[in-house]
């Protein structure tokens, strides 16, 4: 019985698995935060482009006076 307890105390495979799990969770969190920031920047850029195009389309549709 004491041999079983001694092996259990020396076994570090569970700790390694937990460390790998924490590293994977941190990497996933970093990817999600980066994708969120990139999505916000892209949304702002495309909104600006759409506003510019709407402004150009509004001025091009007005008839020219001689």
UniProtKB/TrEMBL annotation:
Keywords attached to this entry: Membrane, Transmembrane, Transmembrane helix
Transmembrane parts of this sequence: 20-42
UniProt KW Membrane keyword: yes
Name the record gives this protein: Flp family type IVb pilin
Source organism: Mesorhizobium plurifarium
């Amino acid at each position: 019985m004491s041999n079983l307890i001694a092996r259990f105390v020396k076994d570090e495979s569970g700790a390694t698995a937990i460390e790998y799990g924490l590293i994977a969770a941190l990497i996933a969190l970093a990817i999600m935060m980066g994708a969120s920031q990139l999505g916000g920047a892209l949304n702002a850029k495309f909104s600006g482009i759409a506003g510019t195009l709407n402004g150009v389309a509004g001025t091009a549709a007005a008839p020219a006076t001689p």
